[in-house]
Amino acid sequence: MQEEYHKRALSKSIFNTISDAAEELSLDCYVIGGFVRDYLLQRGIPEDIDIVAVGSGIALAEKVASKLEGKPQVSVFKNFGTAMVKNQDIELEFVGARKESYNRNSRKPIVENGTLADDQKRRDFTINALALSLNKNDFGKLLDPFNGISDLKNQIIRTPLEPGITYSDDPLRMMRAIRFASQLGFKIESKSLAAISENKERLKIISNERIVDELHKILLSKKPSVGLALLHKTGLLPIILPELTALQGIEEVEGQKHKDNFWHTLEVVDNIAETTDNLWLRWAALLHDIGKAPTKKFHKKIGWTFHGHEFVGSKMVYKLFKRLHMPLNEKMKFVQKMVMMSSRPQILSEDFATDSAIRRLVFDAGDHVEDLMTLCEADITTKNQKKQRRYKNNFKVVRQKIKEVEERDHIRNFQPPVSGEEIMETFNLKPCREIGIIKEAIKEAILEGEIPNEYEASKAFMIKKGQELGLTLNG
Ligand code: CTP
To answer: What is the pTM of this model?
Structure first.
């Protein structure tokens, strides 16, 4: 039964091709890693398949490529003894089985040939060390020397070797352990968790790009707080995102407390993960309160304040993205904008929101107004049911008003209905500051609802405004 099930993982014809190639080269080979893990977890078939050869992985890759339709190119990474072949949508990664030991100051392994068992032992987790044979004599046989199957069943992340060795060999694995725990909802074995805390400083030899890759995967998981709380617990978070750690804690002065903005943030991220898969909106949720640590103040009369935290927070977003070598492009600007505007809908919802306030919100948020509303709704974390219902309802009202104002006033991608050229022509002007003043006045009049967002009304307003400024009409 089990054997049939494992064999079915290898029903794609590519596995027979690899098996034939290995037989011709008289070497053994196995599928290993994420493909086997995800097949057994029924998580769908991954796009990359890792093959380990007991012998030369590069020679096997070349033989396989020569048998495939169109004879795809083989990309060889000689230093690592690996090779990659792309077959349709699938990337096949070939590696020779190795006994590895790592250089302490980099992730570059010192490679020595080894057996399958040597290779499995040097992998990160037991659930990633599962291998399926591609050999003719036992095709489909599962090789599981470290009880990866029972760890899969019991949902445990465990290292094949002493965890201290596995993590020290490649500190990226500390992030991977936490990422898998978050993605799969697995528990990290306690010995392993302790080893991560002990080795946390070694994360510093890992490139920011790889750390961010894992952070993205944590943020994209179903319940990102699982991974974020583990990063916090193990002490990795202050190394990667000290801005978040700084939000932790509740201070009390004269009997007045503020909420713990770190744990609040984690709840907000979980909330937003239920409504959107947009990675950058999830980042915005993660960073929406980071300005609160540097702006926190206590005032005798009003208690705790975080004045201007949205502005400070949006500036911090830039520094944080830069430090982590994240893109400083429109994605970063989007996150900054969300952080900057994160309190606006809330202020509106607490009071009666006038049409002009709604128009200003839509004008400032532009196409991101729905994302902003999604963020603000996720920001509701009160445990008081009555308040929660009230806040949610208030946001519903704001959303409805946005819809009405949008249908009527088309403010979202505001273009001035009267151009600068037309102002110049009307008053026979050369470029001067009056043009800017008139344009701004028209925009303000539209946003305030004094005139509709239309050409005729704007033109009449322009003439009135120009005359007020002492300009005379052309001709
Ligand atoms: N591996 C490892 N240590 C690492 C990275 C990878 O031991 N730091 C091993 C694991 O056996 C892993 C395999 O290499 O399963 C393939 O790695 P990779 O493709 O990066 O990850 P997957 O496990 O396939 O999972 P995912 O695609 O979700 O990253």
So the answer is: 0.93
Does residue 474 contact residue 423 with C-beta atoms inside 8 Å?
A: no
The pair phi, psi for residue 295, each rounded to 5°, is -105, 0
Ligand 1 atom closest to Cα of 46? 27
Which of 43, 128, 196 for a ligand 1 pocket mutation test, highest count of atoms within 8 Å of Cβ?
A: 128
Ligand 1 centroid from CA 93, angstroms: 11
Q: Which residues of 9-35 are buried (b: 16+ CB within 10 A; e: fewer)?
A: bbeeebbebbbebbbebebbbbbbbbb
User: What pLDDT digit, counting tens, does each position of 388-400 carry?
Assistant: 999 999 999 999 9
Q: How far apart are CA 302 and CA 91, in angstroms?
A: 60
Q: What percent of the chain has pLDDT over 90?
A: 83
d(CA 140, CA 315) in angstroms, rounded, equals: 55
142-174 pLDDT, tens digit each:
999 999 999 999 999 999 999 999 999 899 999
| SS3 category, 354 | coil
Question: What mean pLDDT comes out for the span 358-375?
Answer: 95
Ligand 1 atom 29: residue of nearest CA: 34
Domains with residue ranges and CATH for the chain: 2-154 (3.30.460.10), 155-240 (1.10.110.30), 420-468 (no CATH)
Residue with tokens 């305030």: 448
Count how many Cα atoms sit within 13 Å of the Cα of residue 421 in the half-sphere of its side chain: 0
Q: Are strands 297-299 and 303-305 parallel, antiparallel or unpaired?
A: antiparallel
| Residue 133 near residue 36 (C-beta atoms within 8 A) | no
Taking CA atoms, 220 is separated from 52, 180, 231, 272, 278, in Å, by 29, 12, 15, 11, 8
Q: Is 14 helix (H, G, I), strand (E, B) or coil?
A: helix
Token pair of 472 as six digits: 């005379």
pLDDT in tens, 334-346: 999 999 999 988 8
- Here the tokens at position 343 are 């309190």
